[in-house]
Amino acid sequence: MSKLKYLNGAITVLKWTVLYPIDKENSPLKKFFYFTWALFFISSFVTSVIQCVMFLLTTEFDLLKEGMVIMNAAIYITLFINFFIFYYKSDSLVKLVHIINETFVDETDNEIDKITMKEASDLTNKLSYCWTMSVVASGLFSGFLPLYIGDRNIMPIPGWFPYDYTKSPQYELSYIWQIFCQINLGLIYGASDMIYPSMTIVIGQQFKILANNFSNNVHFAFVKSGLSTDTVKDFKVNSQHQSLVALMQNYKDVFSLMQDRRFKQTNREYLCKNIRHHQMLIKCCHDLNDIMSLFLLAKISAVTFNTIFIVFTLITVVPNNATRRCRLSLVTFQSGDRTMIVGLCCYAFFGNTELFIYNYGGQILIEGADILWTVYECPWYLCDLSFQKIFLFAQMKISKTVQTKAGNYFSMSAPTFISFIRCVFSYAAILKEVTNFN
Questions:
Q1: Which H or E run includes 350?
Q2: Contact present, 23 and 1 (Cβ < 8 Å)
Q3: Which end of the chain is more exposed for a tag (fewer CB within 10 A), N or C?
Q4: pLDDT, tens only, 151-182
Q5: CB-based contacts of 147: which residues, under 8 Å, 6+ apart?
Q6: Cα–Cα–Cα angle for 356, 120, 116, nearest 5°?
Q7: Which helix (DSSP H) or strand (DSSP E) does residue 271 occupy?
Q8: Is 17 helix (H, G, I), strand (E, B) or coil?
Q9: 395, 276 in Cβ contact below 8 A?
Q10: Peptide bond preceding 162: is omega within 30 degrees of 0, i.e. cis?
């Protein structure tokens, strides 16, 4: 596995879930183990989907009993769709990852302010590992809950195999296999969730570095032309409070330097360099949108519909079932009901968190790319006419908004997250009313 400066955590967990191609320079032995794991990994999803579908087809429909099965079937089918999307876009994803690691700068060029990529890189690594492990832990919790309850008739995923679960070793073998499937479910969910927000965090931090370089464009040229860093910092602070006449009186050496040909050339060249940097970031944003658009649409749609079903089940079926068993104001659930309720609550929590992660990642990108007002902090009005013309061109380029869309339908942003939450509870309430009416 090659060493990456950025996105190391997100790419590592993607490789765990065979959603990211292994490096070409890996040894044949490592490739063999990787493809063996991939075969084992994918086969667990195939059997899990078959299990869920066959259980739904061979049992009488009951929303309370089959709620978890329906959720598992929908989630596994969504994961297969995500598999195909990742493999279809794998070449573009690898190319974008290499562009980010090879072309992104580590810190600001100027000596006035320092902003680095280390904080963003460390944050993405921690988020990738922590979120993936938390989703795996959630799957294991719902998987081991039947063992805690002590009912051998309850399985993490209701089985359709011709096994007698009251006997050994059929029960143990089936249970171990289903726990393995639960681990894979958590791995692929956590890994696929984190690549998009990790990229938006890294690109957003790069936009911050670029914005700082733009705002210090003239000050960078001052330092390169021979002025001391302390003098430039003092000029930058006072230029925001003093009038132009006062500045010209107090900083005669600075204004004298601005007429130097070397300063003008350095100032223009650095501005052109920042413009090219901005165009490269815009292209990265467009590439990210092309790669993740269909994936985000599949994820957002599945999470939204599943969450609507979960909320509807929790507010309608479970309370009604509990009321029928209520004695002396003490509500007691059967063991199967408790397993389903805990599982549905876990799905609801992680589903809403997924929606927040995707929309928060898009919001980071929108806010990071909005650097127009930061550019105005540069004292462009003191420079020569040639620089001002280029600066005007840069403003027109920077004024364009950047956003990521799910299938070109939903813009990933904070308002979109609020709309999704409203949609979930609105449709759940409508379904409840329709059920009560019937």
A1: helix 335-369
A2: yes
A3: C
A4: 666 666 666 565 666 677 777 777 787 788 77
A5: none
A6: 150
A7: helix 261-312
A8: coil
A9: no
A10: no
pLDDT digits (tens, 9 = 90+) for 269-322: 998 999 999 999 999 999 999 988 888 888 888 888 878 877 777 776 655 554
User: What is d(CA 294, CA 192) in angstroms, rounded to the nearest whole number?
Assistant: 13
Question: Which residues lie closer than 8 Å to 164 by C-beta, 6 or more apart?
Answer: 170
Residues contacting 195, CB < 8 A, separation 6+: 7, 10, 11, 14, 93, 292
21 against 266, higher pLDDT: 266
Q: Do residues 350 and 310 make contact, with C-beta atoms less than 8 angstroms apart?
A: no
- Counted residue by residue, the chain has a size of 438
Q: What pTM did the predictor assign?
A: 0.85
C-beta of residue 54 within 8 angstroms of C-beta of residue 162: no
CA 192 to chain centre: 8
Which contiguous run of DSSP H or E holds residue 406? strand 405-406
Tell whether the torsion through CA atoms of 375, 377, 381 and 384 is positive or negative: negative
